């Protein structure tokens, strides 16, 4: 006689009853693999803040070399090396092409580009994207490490692509907010270059002649004693 109100266990329940150890191990393995998978699909955290953040603006002057500027700031807690790459190396270059920034440090980079003469009424390309692109990469480094391009080849797995910037041409004869900001950033970039050219202030003893070190305080004391001797001779005579 069939017993009503009772159902047979399904296939999954049978597996649990027959192989409890296998089922528990399978569940534990699947749950432990979820965080690592989630970490693998998350985008890498950026180390630099860029201004402008998406485009490089250039004044349109056909047949001339024009300039753009971008500010990079290290927002991470470690020293970070940065490097520029471009899809148009024959007509573009950057100054500096790379460097190392301490935490919180900023730098202005100047980008140079040669604008070719228009072929098919290229004036219509103003305020539109150009084919040229600039890629900015970053790499975490130890304090004291100097920038060399080979750093990014030696540690490819640790390199982050911060941003790929597109080029936009601006009408140099028509005032705009973007053009005003570009002019201001170029002035700040030039001022930063002049500051870097100045020699660091002297904090130690002066070096005079061929390696002769003179302590300024000792020099002043000797001059003072010499004046005292002259005064005593004059008073005795």
TrEMBL record:
| Pfam families named in the record | Motile_Sperm
Q: Which SUPFAM superfamilies match?
A: PapD-like
Which residues are in the MSP domain?
47-170
**Any one of the GO CC terms:** endoplasmic reticulum membrane
InterPro entries, alphabetically? Answer: Ig-like_fold, MSP_dom, PapD-like_sf, VAP
Q: Does the keyword Cell division apply?
A: no
Annotated keywords: Phosphoprotein
Any idea what job this protein has? May play a role in vesicle trafficking.
**What protein family does this chain belong to?**
Belongs to the VAMP-associated protein (VAP) (TC 9.B.17) family.
Question: What name does the UniProt record give this protein?
Answer: MSP domain-containing protein
């Amino acid at each position: 006689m069939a017993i009503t109100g009772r159902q047979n266990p399904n296939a999954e329940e049978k597996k649990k009853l027959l192989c409890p150890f296998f089922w528990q191990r399978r569940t534990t393995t699947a749950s432990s693999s979820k965080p690592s998978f989630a970490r693998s699909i998350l985008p890498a955290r950026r180390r630099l803040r860029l201004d402008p953040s998406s485009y490089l603006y250039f004044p349109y002057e056909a047949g001339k070399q024009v300039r753009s500027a971008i500010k990079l700031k290290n927002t991470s807690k470690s020293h970070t090396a940065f490097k520029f790459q471009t899809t148009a190396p024959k007509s573009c270059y950057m100054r500096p092409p790379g460097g190392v920034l301490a935490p919180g440090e900023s730098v202005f980079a100047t980008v140079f580009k040669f604008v070719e003469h228009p072929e098919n009424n290229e004036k219509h390309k103003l305020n539109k994207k150009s084919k040229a692109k600039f890629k900015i990469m970053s790499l975490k480094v130890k304090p004291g490490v100097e920038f060399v391009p080979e750093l990014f080849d030696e540690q490819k797995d640790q390199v982050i692509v911060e941003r790929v910037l597109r080029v936009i041409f601006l009408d140099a004869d028509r005032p705009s907010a973007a053009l005003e900001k570009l002019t201001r950033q170029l002035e700040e970039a030039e001022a930063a270059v002049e500051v870097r050219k100045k020699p660091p202030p002297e904090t130690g003893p002066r070096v005079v002649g061929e390696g002769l070190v003179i302590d300024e305080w000792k020099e002043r004391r000797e001059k003072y004693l010499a004046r005292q001797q002259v005064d005593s001779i004059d008073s005795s005579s």
